[in-house]
Amino acid sequence: MATLIVRGPDGSEREVALVKRITSVGRDPENDVPVEDPALPATALHIHFDGKDYNAAAHDRSDMTVNGKRRGAWRLGPGDRIRVAGTELTFEAVARTPLPSARPIAGQRLQALETLVRFSERLLGATDLNRLLDELMDALLEVTHADKGFLILLEDGEMSVRAARNVARETIEGAVERVSDSIIRRVVETRRALVVADALHDSEWSGSTSVVNLKLCSVMCAPLMQKGEVFGVIYLGNDNVVSLFDERALELLAPFAAQASLLVQNAMLLDSLRRENLSLKEAVASRQYGDLIGAGASMREVYRRIDKVAGTDISVLVSGETGTGKEVVAREIHRRSTRATGPFVAVNCGAIPEALLESELFGHVKGAFTGAVATRIGKFQAAHGGTLFLDEIGDMPLALQVKILRALQDRAVTKVGDNRPEAVDLRVVAATNRVLEDEIRKGTFREDLYYRLNVVAIHLPPLRDRGEDVVVIGKYFLQKYAKEFGARVRGFTPGALVAMRKYAWPGNIRELENRVKKAVVLADRALVSAEDLDLRPEILEPILPLAQAKEEFQKRYINEVLERNAGNRTKTAKDLGVDPRTVFRHLEKLEAERRGQVLPPDDEETEA
Ligand SMILES: Nc1ncnc2c1ncn2[C@@H]1O[C@H](COP(=O)(O)OP(=O)(O)OP(=O)(O)O)[C@@H](O)[C@H]1O
Predict the structure, then answer these.
(1) Does the CB atom of residue 394 touch ligand 1 within 6 A?
(2) Has domain 3-92 been given CATH number 2.60.200.20?
(3) pLDDT, tens digit, for every residue of 420-457?
(4) How far is the CA of 508 from the centre of ligand 1 (A)?
(5) CATH hierarchy code of domain 108-274
(6) Rounded to the nearest whole angstrom, what is the distance from the C-alpha of residue 319 to the centroid of ligand 1?
(7) Total Cβ atoms within 10 A of residue 246
(8) 548 CA to centre of ligand 1 in angstroms
């Protein structure tokens, strides 16, 4: 490294290393080389290093001589003597005495640790990964005195510059092209930090992209590691000072990089969770209708019907297998109706013993039967001004069906043991998982009541026929219960998603909810697996006779294509390369199945 021997007018002598690109000499203490010489101008000259040579230039026409001759500017060679006023400077291409480190490291370790603690504290409040990384780089520039810093992450083998900062705490534009570089490659390959003292003159690195593009003199690069793997690097440089970094500076950087690795990994995990959360929220929001989640064609048809009937007082009959959301639909109708501020009263007709059902529905007067110690109103009166939800209406005994029909026709009910009818103003939504038409045929359900309740029918498809909705609803429950139980679970494994799509879900959404809830409580990993959901291969794919398996597949496949085509039968037939009558026939069969009927086999099927 080049040096200047500085001799003052009093004969004192000292050696100064030329570590900067431009070194100023003068009387003013602000200069890089201040000299106590009253005759010397405030700044007398500059020595400029152009990457190859050192050039002296007189400042403001000051009287400068080199080797006894007056010069305005001069390319310096070994032993050249510069004189201004009473000061003499001798240029040496190499240091005469070993120089102390360019920057004293003592005390910096403490400063670095303090900065690290401050940074860690900031992490606790950090909400955004990009800002956090910028803060990390700013802290590192402060500690190491680098004037440029880059945090580069390796994602899927690709380098991406996640933070690029200069001392002014500004983002360096176009950083990717500037640093994609052999120095980084070396650090990634060796997994070891690297210091380059005088990069412009180091034959190994002087051609590297970053050194050329950023005109770097000093470079220090350390890996960010997790479980022995490099996932990024911290790259620091200075374009002004050579030999800024040495082994001791590396020692300073090492704990910082180790801690930063943890912090960055954590922050990245948090960031990905936040992003996943947000996209799930968006997905749920775009697939949500009140408390109902799902946006497949069949559910969109359900929403359309709810929209149509909600504002009226029309009776609605909701049908669907157990756990498909019939009560949620009833509540949604109520919530969107003009009765929303009134009560919503649910009665499970199948769960109440027959002897108690009448009094439960219509109330009783004191002494009406043994145990009737006080007069009580029934569910009909409780629902006055609101909506009465009659769940499992198919389980209602015939005798009571007559009374319900009368109450709905007369808009009045009479308590058990009383003979004074009371007016009630309510809307009825009934639900059933039975096929009521069959019950009528069997004589267990009254046709007149059926028509009274079934002014508009809403059918809820089973979960297995709702396509991708099963995943969206599953993720919604996962998120909900992870939050409720403070669990660290953040998603499903790909295997779990496949299993969820394959499984038949006999208990529908209630079963999905229960399985996910249990998995969230018990899971000890971030991702819930098919095993956590108790979806073992044997319950996913029961072995069927080939003909039945073919039929099942065909049914599912046509449903899927129909779903993709938003229910358009002609397009579905065209896509499947079949006659439209095949699709119509398929839908007829589904409808018959829903009613529990069996259609005669087609010619095609008979042949098969
Ligand atoms: N589309 C949906 N999105 C989110 N949650 C749903 C959806 N459908 C149903 N659920 C939830 O599934 C569970 C079962 O729903 P609900 O009780 O309404 O079903 P049901 O058809 O009335 O059942 P049952 O016939 O057994 O009375 C509830 O916890 C409900 O909140």
Answers:
(1) no
(2) yes
(3) 999 999 999 999 999 899 999 999 999 999 999 999 99
(4) 8
(5) 3.30.450.40
(6) 12
(7) 16
(8) 30
Indicate whether residue 569 lines ligand 1 (CB < 6 A). Answer: no
For ligand 1, atom 15, the nearest C-alpha belongs to: 325
d(CA 461, CA 105): 72
How far is the C-alpha of 452 from the C-alpha of 168, rounded, in Å?
77
What residue spans define the domains of the chain?
3-92, 108-274, 292-453, 463-540, 546-607
pLDDT in tens, 63-117: 899 999 999 899 999 899 999 999 999 998 765 554 444 444 445 566 666 777 7
Output the six-digit token pair for 268: 């990245």
Q: What is the pTM of this model?
A: 0.53
293 lines ligand 1 (CB under 6 A): yes
Any ligand 1 atom below 6 A from CB of 320: yes
325 lines ligand 1 (CB under 6 A): yes
Nearest one of 55, 59, 97, 51 to 80, comparing CA atoms:
55
Residue 454 CA, ligand 1 centroid: distance in Å: 20
Distance CA 49, CA 56 (A): 9
Domain 292-453, classified CATH 3.40.50.300, yes or no: yes
Q: How far is CA 577 from CA 557, 580, 584, in A?
A: 13, 9, 14
Quick check: ipTM above 0.85? yes
Paired strand residues for 16: 4
Q: Whose CA is nearest to atom 9 of ligand 1?
A: 325
Which CATH fold would you assign to the domain 463-540?
Helicase, Ruva Protein; domain 3 (1.10.8)
Q: Does this chain's domain 3-92 share its CATH topology with 546-607?
A: no
- Between CA 193 and CA 195, with CA 194 as vertex, the angle to 5 degrees is 135
Q: Which of 288, 302, 324 to mutate to test the pocket of ligand 1 (most atoms within 8 A of CB)?
A: 324
For ligand 1, the distance from its centroid to the CA atom of residue 438, given in whole angstroms, is 24
Residue 1 near residue 99 (C-beta atoms within 8 A)? yes
Q: Closest residue (by CA) to atom 10 of ligand 1? A: 325
